[in-house]
Amino acid sequence: MRNIVLGVVAAGISAALGWVARTYLWKRRLRRKQAFFGLPDNSESLLVVNRDAGGPDLTVTRFDVFALLELAALIKDCRAHAQVVAHDAAQQGFGERTEFCVGGPASNRRMLAHLASLLPGVRVNVDPEPGPDRGAFQIGGERYRMEPGVSEYVLLARLTAGERREARPVFLFCGQRAITNQAATRYLARHHEWLARKYGNSSFALLLRVVNSQAYGPDVVELVADVTQAARTALPDRTATPNRASHRAS
After folding, report:
1. CA quadruple 208, 112, 78, 166: dihedral positive or negative?
2. Average pLDDT by consecutive 10-residue portion of the chain (250 residues)?
3. Is residue 15 part of a domain?
4. d(CA 181, CA 69)
5. Inside any domain, residue 241
6. What phi, psi does 174 have (nearest 5°)?
7. Total-model pTM
8. What is the DSSP letter of 7?
9. Range of the domain at 112
């Protein structure tokens, strides 16, 4: 009987210690996630939605809705709250609340402002007329053209303004098509732990390529390059033409 009692007690202690260890690790992982996203318990965040470029009304495309759902799940996991705001109604500064801004500058005025002030080395061709450079990215001296459904690019960035430790980040999902916005949010959801280990709470800008979206949707994404330095360095002349070869799918 004594051995049985000791065995039960030992099993109970082991279970309790295991529960404490798992709880500690879970809480530490949660705190790291909250710090990376700037979302402490019960904090507020903004989901800035774009406008479908095909019409004057506030119409969010199907893939952008999916992107917002991906982000809403991340926010909920951090025990925070989200407020959805139209891009032309988000008339406030940044740094007070974490912001997730979805959509290219052609359909998102807020994104256009963020690129101009935070990533002056990035230009996006917003010309609605068909052509090989429609929607192309220029980052530093490189130009990235899209081939719809085959090879498309999206910029994923985490940015903070100033050096204040308490400043909340702005996350940008600036894609050449709506499906690339969803691809970038999914990439962030899958790789945020790796990104947090690599960059901590510092700013970064990554260029991603969505491969064969007509067959694979937003799931096959390649990291092209860390373009943080080039994206944050202002281009010398808005009329300058890059002298390097354009990037196209092989």
Report:
1. positive
2. 68 70 72 92 90 57 88 94 82 81 90 92 86 87 91 95 73 94 95 94 94 93 95 73 47
3. no
4. 12
5. no
6. -110, 100
7. 0.82
8. H
9. 36-232
